[in-house]
Every structure is written in structure tokens, then in C-alpha cells.
Design brief:
Elements (H helix, E strand, L loop, with lengths): L30 H16 L9 H28 L5 H14 L3 H32 L6 E7 L5 E7 L8 E4 L9 E6 L1 E4 L1 H4 L5 E3 L4 E2 L4 E2 L4 E5 L7 H15 L11 H21 L4 H15 L2 H20 L2 E3 L2 H7 L4 E4 L1 H5 E12 L7 H12 L5 H12 L7 E7 L3 E6 L2 E6 L1 H4 L12 H12 L3 E7 L2 E12 L3 H12 L4 E3 L4 H11 L3 E3 L4 H13 L4 E5 L5 H6 L2 E5 L5 H6 L2 E3 L6 H36 L4 H19 L15
Parallel strand pairs: 11-18, 11-20, 18-19, 20-21, 21-22
Antiparallel strand pairs: 1-2, 1-3, 3-9, 4-7, 4-9, 5-6, 5-8, 10-22, 12-17, 13-14, 14-15, 15-16, 16-17
Length: about 675
């Protein structure tokens, strides 16, 4: 017998589907952030001391504090690198800052220290936030479950246990609205289960005895008895956590272009500075003159201009993208986005809007109903229901301005549909295969036209919902998750940028995936994928030498986002884990911004190369002057700073409106 829907135990219609509690590491809980904050405060306090006529000792003390607090972290990292027989830019920049201070350029050195300390703090914060989200994912799975035990009278006793104590073979009871405590198989009962976190499917899936269910997914309005099939430590949710952590750890260290030559440049500059100091000294030059020449050399040959050759274009690109609703998390991310040559797109919530909507209303001939009357009848019966499909029907009727009729005797059967008395008639709304068994084989109850209507909608990728009045089919509704308006244009733009058509990776069924792919212009589809299958696809392409961009929004996309060369998350309805794992976030949920930010990244890379040529030319000229002649220190500083300003202004060109372009509508 169908069970009366208990509205108190079922999840409310407007409740978040599967959002785990948010975990956030406090910024100042990180030592890197505390050092950088202290350096910034001291720097801001020191700036006005001399212009306002303050005591010199105060300015000196504050600037010294900047060097100590801000230089500690990068300096210590540099020392550890030296112990491993490597020399990095962190230590070199600290030495350059100290050298600048030694020849009177205290302010320049302090600014350099603050910039590097802040960069390190931001990197540490990004790492901590990703770890927070990975740990928060575990909150999707409940900590306790109701385990059923046989008693002496042959019935069943219940006990509440921690889910980590469940073992394969146990049977648990999952009440309406609860999260399922373990991966397993339905032993008894029927319900609809929202498993979007695992498969990405937009609609709850009907579950009956023998069907597989996953830990962390949300049970609908029916009660289920689930036989545990996997140890909780090996559940799909636990495996997602491990895959994200492993992908983040094994992903090749990201480097900016300039960092690829860091070792050679650093070692070369140190050796050259020592040579510029010791060689003239050995030939009888005064100590002060030799030291001044060496410090001048260090200033003009320092990597400041080279570093700024890279950062302004990338930071300008980040700012431009941010104004358009795309958050790139670092300069490294912005550089890598332009390197991609393969794109993998998720379906639900990425290419589609992620919300079921009524797209077809088909009254059957002889029913005496038009589209509005059929929709009104179905919505009146569905109004008390909490099911997402019911919400879609009711919302569609309200959008058309239809007045609904009060329903009486409402009952809901999980996985089948609803029954109610509307206007004196018994109205049933639900799955054709459940309300009219045999419909899918063409042998069941109902007219041939009814079967044709259902088959036509399902072949087109819609979810078919049949409406019966007093036991007779009167119409069929088609419900689907519509593609985003800019989906086709985005696919075409990404194809033009990479030379390959994007691939659709989805946990949804093959038929629905194929229909969407045909609609937006995608030729390769991989459907029915679990999170580990998406990661396997990404690694397969990466092993073939491709640089993959993954675009997704759900928890099930997070491992692939972490494993890919670059990952972009849709931000409006994206899960916490996807947002933290992804390299960039589309804040305004406009899919067309994805190819636009790839174009912007490539433009930034071109400007980086231009700036490196400019900076290299200035450095070479100033170094030659210092070595072959006598370069006055003020002129050396002016040339060095001039090249820095020039490359900085060149990089700022990407702030212009014309630097951003989006694909035109088809």
C-alpha cells in the first residue's frame, strides 16, 4: 500500500540538497599569515615617519621590524633549500633586499620583503582552505546509523551505532530525510534517493530492493533497509576524499614561467656578484669602491624587473577576469589556463542549469484537455509533494498563471508517484512504468498513443511523467534539465581554442547525456561515471601528453578537478569541495566566461614574454655598463626602476575592456 507522505519527516523542498558544514581555517591561525600581517603593519607605520619629520631611530626600528618579520619565512625556506644544495628566488630576494638596505635603499628592500611575505601567506591560506574542504566532505556521511538486530521473538531490535563500526553484512534502517550511513544494497523498502553528490544526477533516483545506494546520499520520503556492502573506510565518499588528497599531492608542482630558470639565474647572479666584488679587490681597488660596485651590480641584475615582467600581466588578467565573474586563485592558475588543449565538461549544473523543468505538455487525444488544463490537473495533485519533479510541475503551472485546485486524499508512493482527488476525480501522476506496468514494453495498460507519447519523450532525453484521471491516461509531461543558453556557443569557442571538441563526462545515464551532447555540439560522451572513473579519464589524457581543463560543480567532480592540469568550478551552486579544489571559480555561473578566461590567459602569456625581453635588455645593458665602465648608483637604480615601471605598465594593458572577449551567441 502506498504510504501517506509524512511532511514532517521528509526533507523540505527548499532545503539544500547535500551541503556539508563549512570548515574554515582562520587566516591568522597560519604562521605565514601572521608574519606577513606583522610585516605589512610595520611597513605602513614606517612609511610616514620620515615625511612627517619623525625621529630617524623610529623609522629605522620599524623598517628593521619589516625585514625581520617579513623576511623570516622566505629566508628560512631559502636556508632549508640551501641545505638541500639548491638556491631559490626566496633567499635571493631576501639577500637583494638586505643588499638594497646596505646601500641606503631601505624602502625598496622593505617593499620587496612585504610583497614576498604576502605571496607566501596567500599560498599557505589556499592550501589550508583546500584541506578544510576535503575534511568537510567527510561530514556528508552521517556519524551514526540505526543498525537492525534480530531478537529472540523473531522480530527486529534497533541500536544506534557509529557508522565507523558498521561492517559488511549489517543491515541499517534509513528513515525519510536521513542520510544513508554506508554503501550497500537495498534489502527492503522503496524510496527516492538524492545521490547528486556521487553521480551528479539532477533528479532523485528511485530505489527498490536490489538497488545500490551510497553513503552520504539523502533518502526521500520512503523508509529503506540497507544491507552494508562495504566497510565505511572504503565507501565512495571516503574514496573521493582520498582521490582529492592523492591528486593534490601527486600533481606536478606548478611554476610560473620565470621560476623554470630560477636556479640558473640565482646561482649565476650570486657568483657574478661575488666576482664583481672580489676581482677588483684582488687588483687593488679600495674595499668601499669594490663593495659599492658589487651592490650596484646586485641591484641592476636583481630579478625584480624579471619577476615584475611576469606578475603584472597575470595579475591584470586576474583582475580583468574577476570583474567578469571569474576568480582565478593565483598567477600560476592564470598562466596554466592558457596551456590547455583538451576540455572535459560535466553535465548537470555545468552544461545544464541543474534544475528540472517542464518542457513538454502533451494532452492525449480524446482526453478533453488542452495543455493548460492538463498541467493544472497534474500540478493540483502534485502540490502537497516534496519531490523535485513535483516541484517542477507546480512551478510550471504557476509560471503560466494557472489557479490550482485543492487536492484531497493525497498519498505518495516512493518511486511510483502520487494519487489525489482533484475536482471529484482520482488523479494519479507518476512514472509510466510504475502506474501502467508494461508501458516500456508496449504490452501494458493504456492506449497506443499514450505509449508513443512516452516513448517519444524518453527517446528525446526527457523524464516522462504520465497523468491518469480515474484510471485512464489523459496526458504526458516531459521534464528535463535544460542546457544553459550559452552552452552551445561555449562548446564551439572551446573547440576553436583547443582544436578539439570538448568531452562530456557525467554520472547521468547514456541517453540523457547523448541528447544534451547532440544539442550543444559535443561528439564524445562518457556517461554513467563515478568520481574515480572521471579521474581515470583525466589521467588517461594526461598520460597521452594532453593538458586537460575540467569544468564541473559537484563533489563528484572534485577529484577530476584536482587531477587535471587546470580545473574550473561553477560557483553559484557548486559544492564547497569543488570550489576549493578548482583552480578558478565562475562566480556568476556564466559558462561563456570559460573560453574567455582561456583567451585572456594566452594574452597574458604573450605579454609575459614581451616583458621578459624588455627586462632582459635593460639588465644586460646596465650590467655591461657596470662591468665595463663606472655606472653611478643613482643611475643604476633609475635604470632598474625604469625597466620595472615599463614592464609593469605594459602588463597593465590587460586591464582594458578590450582584453576580454566572449563567444558570440550562435
Amino acid at each position: 500500500m502506498p504510504a501517506v507522505l509524512d511532511r514532517r519527516s521528509a526533507p523540505p523542498a527548499d532545503a539544500p540538497r547535500t551541503a556539508p558544514p563549512r570548515r574554515r581555517t582562520r587566516v591568522l591561525a597560519l604562521p605565514e599569515a601572521r608574519w606577513a600581517f606583522a610585516a605589512l603593519v610595520l611597513f605602513l607605520l614606517a612609511l610616514p615617519v620620515r615625511p612627517l619629520g619623525g625621529p630617524e631611530w623610529l623609522a629605522g626600528a620599524l623598517f628593521a621590524g619589516v625585514y625581520v618579520t617579513g623576511g623570516w619565512e622566505p629566508g628560512w625556506e631559502g636556508v632549508k633549500a640551501l641545505r638541500e644544495k639548491t638556491l631559490d628566488v626566496d633567499l635571493l630576494m631576501v639577500v637583494a633586499a638586505l643588499g638594497a638596505a646596505a646601500i641606503g635603499q631601505v624602502l625598496d628592500g622593505a617593499l620587496l620583503i612585504v610583497i614576498f611575505a604576502t605571496s607566501g601567506a596567500l599560498e599557505a591560506l589556499a592550501t589550508a582552505r583546500t584541506a578544510d574542504s576535503v575534511r568537510g566532505l567527510l561530514d556528508l556521511a552521517p556519524t551514526t546509523a540505526t543498525r537492525l538486530l534480530p531478537d529472540r521473538r523473531g522480530g527486529g531490535a534497533e541500536e544506534t551505532v557509529e557508522t565507523r563500526h558498521l561492517a559488511p553484512g549489517d543491515t541499517i534502517l534509513v528513515r525519510p530525510g536521513e542520510r544513508i550511513g554506508a554503501d550497500g544494497q537495498v534489502a527492503a523498502g522503496a524510496s527516492d534517493v538524492d545521490q547528486a553528490t556521487i553521480t551528479g544526477e539532477p533528479l532523485p533516483v528511485a530505489k527498490q530492493p536490489g538497488d545500490e545506494v551510497f553513503a552520504g546520499t539523502v533518502n526521500g520520503s520512503g523508509a529503506l533497509r540497507v544491507r552494508v556492502e562495504r566497510d565505511p573506510s572504503d565507501s565512495v565518499i571516503a574514496r573521493i576524499v582520498r582521490m582529492v588528497e592523492e591528486a593534490s599531492e601527486t600533481k606536478a608542482p606548478t611554476q610560473l614561467f620565470i621560476e623554470k630558470i630560477e636556479q640558473r639565474y640565482s646561482i649565476g647572479m650570486v657568483l657574478a656578484t661575488l666576482a664583481v666584488f672580489t676581482v677588483p679587490l684582488a687588483f687593488g681597488d679600495p674595499l668601499q669602491a669594490a663593495l659599492l660596485r658589487a651592490m650596484t651590480f646586485m641591484i641592476v641584475a636583481s630579478p625584480c624587473a624579471v619577476v615584475l615582467s611576469t606578475m603584472p600581466p597575470l595579475l591584470s588578467a586576474i583582475a580583468n577576469a574577476g570583474r567578469r565573474g571569474v576568480l582565478a586563485k593565483s598567477a600560476v592558475v592564470m598562466e596554466r589556463l592558457g596551456q590547455i588543449d583538451t576540455v572535459a565538461l560535466d553535465k548537470t549544473g555545468t552544461l545544464t542549469e541543474g534544475v528540472p523543468q517542464v518542457t513538454e505538455v502533451r494532452p492525449l487525444p480524446g482526453s478533453g484537455l488542452d495543455e493548460s488544463a492538463l498541467l493544472r490537473l497534474a500540478a493540483s495533485a502534485e502540490r502537497p509533494s516534496e519531490h523535485p519533479l513535483a516541484r517542477a510541475v507546480v512551478d510550471s503551472a504557476r509560471e503560466r498563471g494557472l489557479t490550482l485546485i485543492d487536492a484531497e486524499g493525497f498519498v505518495s508512493a516512493p518511486g511510483q508517484g502520487v494519487t489525489a482527488t482533484v475536482g471529484g476525480s482520482t488523479v494519479q501522476v507518476g512514472a509510466p512504468a510504475r502506474l501502467l506496468p508494461g508501458t516500456d514494453t508496449g504490452t501494458g495498460t493504456g492506449t497506443a498513443r499514450h505509449r508513443d507519447a512516452v516513448a517519444g519523450l524518453e527517446d528525446a532525453g526527457h523524464t516522462a511523467v504520465v497523468v491518469l484521471r480515474d484510471g485512464t491516461p489523459v496526458g504526458v509531461l516531459g521534464i528535463t534539465d535544460r542546457p544553459r543558453p550559452d552552452a552551445a556557443a561555449t562548446v564551439a569557442a572551446l573547440t576553436a581554442l583547443t582544436g578539439r571538441t570538448p568531452v562530456l563526462l557525467t554520472g547521468d545515464n547514456e541517453r540523457a547525456a547523448r541528447r544534451l551532447a547532440d544539442e550543444v555540439g559535443i561528439t564524445e560522451v562518457r556517461a554513467g561515471l563515478l568520481p574515480q572513473d572521471k579521474v581515470a579519464a583525466v589521467r588517461e589524457w594526461e598520460a597521452a601528453g594532453r593538458r586537460v581543463l575540467v569544468v564541473g560543480d559537484g563533489v563528484n567532480d572534485a577529484p577530476a578537478l584536482a587531477a587535471a592540469h587546470s580545473g574550473v568550478a561553477m560557483g553559484k551552486a557548486g559544492s564547497d569541495l569543488a570550489l576549493e579544489t578548482a583552480d578558478a571559480v565562475v562566480v556568476r555561473d556564466e559558462l561563456a566566461t570559460v573560453p574567455a578566461v582561456v583567451r585572456l590567459s594566452r594574452a597574458a602569456r604573450r605579454l609575459v614574454l614581451q616583458n621578459l625581453v624588455i627586462a632582459g635588455t635593460f639588465i644586460a645593458a646596465l650590467v655591461a655598463w657596470d662591468l665595463l665602465g663606472t655606472l653611478p648608483l643613482p643611475l643604476g637604480v633609475a635604470g632598474h626602476e625604469g625597466s620595472t615601471v615599463l614592464v609593469g605598465l605594459n602588463g597593465l594593458r590587460l586591464l582594458r575592456e578590450t582584453a576580454w572577449s566572449r563567444p558570440a551567441a550562435p
